[in-house]
Design brief:
By secondary structure, the protein is an alpha/beta fold. Helix content is 39%, strand content 25%. Helix 6 links the parallel strand 4 and strand 5.
């Protein structure tokens, strides 16, 4: 399965109840313009576009250009560019969203410098020890301690640079309709994000993990999310 198809399927079964979107909507107004940083396939951009004036879906992956052309929406504009280059000359949004980012400490000073004083900044990322995130650990018997520590430091530094308006832990879910779907999607997602090639042993191990999360016919993995609402500090 190619990158885009695997990415779409990975998102398809996540947060069907749109809990992340509902929390963002508490701070969103109809006349707002939004910069969705690292928008991916627009998992947040598309549902939020129903409630606001304009969204810039920003991502530096050229593989996403065709996707946004195909799923065109009047008030969503996809920009294929790195945030570090874009934000220097485009920093007049009412709301900024950074969801599930790759940990990059340079982003912290960049955001602090260019975030307007009255704008809202929303930071969303997953808890490394949540049910879904530990699938890879159970498969490979590896604990990604370095990544976990980096995320902790990233959040600490980010929240020191900006004012925390709200911080909450929210619970979301990956819900697959059956074991077959869960196996296919998870196998492709693990290969996509971690570049892990499956053999028969790993496939059987994944099936065992999936079976433990069976609720009636559905397969459900819990996901814990850090949800921050921040603003620029006034100097």
């Amino acid at each position: 399965m190619n990158y885009l198809k695997a990415f779409i399927e990975d998102c398809k079964y996540y947060d069907i109840a749109q809990i992340e979107v509902k929390n963002i909507l508490k701070y969103l107004k109809k006349d707002y313009s939004i910069l969705d940083i690292g928008a991916g396939i627009g998992r947040l951009s598309f549902p939020l576009s129903k409630y606001t004036k304009e969204i810039i879906a920003l991502d530096n992956n050229p593989k996403l250009i065709a996707y946004f052309k195909k799923h065109k929406r009047k008030n969503i504009n996809f920009i294929c560019m790195n945030i570090k280059d874009y934000i220097k000359t485009n920093n007049n949004f009412n709301m900024y969203i950074l969801a599930w980012p790759v940990i990059d400490f340079k982003l912290i000073n960049l955001i602090e410098k260019h975030l307007p004083k009255d704008s809202i900044f929303i930071l969303i990322t997953c808890h490394n020890d949540s049910d879904y995130e530990t699938i890879i650990n159970k498969l490979t018997n590896k604990y990604f301690r370095k990544e976990s520590n980096n995320k902790k430091r990233f959040l600490e530094k980010f929240t020191k640079k900006l004012i925390v308006i709200e911080k909450q832990d929210i619970n979301t879910e990956y819900i697959y309709p059956d074991e077959k779907t869960a196996f296919r999607v998870l196998k492709n997602a693990i290969n996509l994000w971690f570049n892990i090639k499956f053999n028969k042993k790993l496939e059987n191990k994944l099936k065992e993990i999936i079976n433990k999360h069976k609720q009636n016919k559905k397969i459900i993995f819990g996901e814990k999310i850090y949800f921050y609402v921040l603003k620029k500090k006034l100097k």
